[in-house]
Design goal:
Length: about 110
């Protein structure tokens, strides 16, 4: 796979004192039939440090993540109601008081 994730993060208004930011690629696999017999496994495939330090208002951080180094499979949703694989992009912000803020996107 030679796909690339491209994007930008803009800081229009900074109220939280951010000290660290990262992007994670997560894979969630679900197997089983019904709500009782379902087994779900969440695995972090990659972590990318985007920023270390406080951002300035109006700052723009470009992001380019090359996916060729990772063993990714197609997203499969409810194959015969027994199996599914989903990928997530997770943006994690850490402030000076060690609180974490998340933004998750389903791929």
């Amino acid at each position: 796979m030679e796909d690339v994730i491209v994007g930008k993060i803009y800081f229009l208004l900074v109220r939280v004192k951010i000290k660290y930011m990262e992007v994670q690629i997560l894979r969630r696999e679900s197997t089983g039939l019904g709500a009782v017999n379902t087994f779900t496994d969440m695995e972090t495939l990659a972590k990318f440090e985007i920023m270390d330090g406080a951002p300035v208002r109006g700052e723009c951080i470009p992001i380019r993540l090359f996916l060729g180094a990772y063993d990714l499979t197609p997203t499969m949703k409810d194959i015969n109601r027994k199996f599914s694989v989903r990928y997530y992009l997770n943006l994690v912000l850490l402030d000076e008081e060690e609180r974490r803020y998340y933004k998750q996107h389903v791929c």
